[in-house]
Amino acid sequence: MRWSHTLPRLLTFAPFALLIASPSGCISPGAARGDTTGVVAELTRLSNAWDNAIVRKDTAAIAGNMSEDFRQIASNGAVANKETFVHGITAPDLTIDPYTVEEFEVRVYGDVALLSGRTRMTGRDGGTPFTTHYRYIDVYVRTNGVWKVCSVQTTRIAG
């Protein structure tokens, strides 16, 4: 699809509160200190809020969750920066239906966290219906106490 290279999480989201996936809280370097529970909850909240913002096309909320040097790598190898991603995901002719994330997982490594999962997404692009099925990984980095997504990679699942 023409927009697939601009949609990092278009393939990864758990948008509405009624459809939130639960994290597994994998063991990570911080887990030995028992300090990841709050971080996993915060990252899950940020991820869900970002998904909801994308479905609503809330440009400020979408961009506010992203680092300035954000990069997305799509299944076809295309790379999008923050500006390109936000422009593509909020295009007037793109509509993303609410979706859920399955197999959601958060792994924390100090000030870096990996959020991954799988999603089936539907919507309309230029009036044409689409369906996608993807696995994704979002990389969040904590700088000055604030978590931002800095990188997203998506892989299309056949079928």
How would you describe this protein?
- The chain is of the alpha+beta class and 159 residues long.
- The protein has one domain: Nuclear Transport Factor 2, Chain: A, CATH 3.10.450.
- It contains three helices and seven strands.
- Strands 1, 2, 3, 4, 5, 6 and 7 form a seven-stranded mixed beta sheet that branches.
- The protein is globular.
- Mean pLDDT is 83; it is low at 1-33.
List the helices and strands and how they pair.
Elements (H helix, E strand, L loop, with lengths): L36 H20 L2 H6 L1 E8 L5 E3 H8 L4 E3 L4 E9 L2 E14 L2 E16 L2 E11 L3
Parallel strand pairs: 1-7
Antiparallel strand pairs: 1-2, 3-5, 4-5, 5-6, 6-7
Give a summary of the structure in a few sentences.
This protein has three helices and seven strands, in the order H-H-E-E-H-E-E-E-E-E. The chain is an alpha+beta fold.
Q: Which features characterize this protein?
A:
alpha+beta; Nuclear Transport Factor 2, Chain: A; 3 helices; globular
Assign a percent range to the helix content: 10-25%
Distance between the termini: 16 Å
Count the E strands.
7
Count of helices?
3
Number of domains: 1
Percent of residues in beta strands? 35-45%
> What fold name stands as the CATH topology?
Nuclear Transport Factor 2, Chain: A
- Indicate the CATH architecture: Roll
CATH class: Alpha Beta
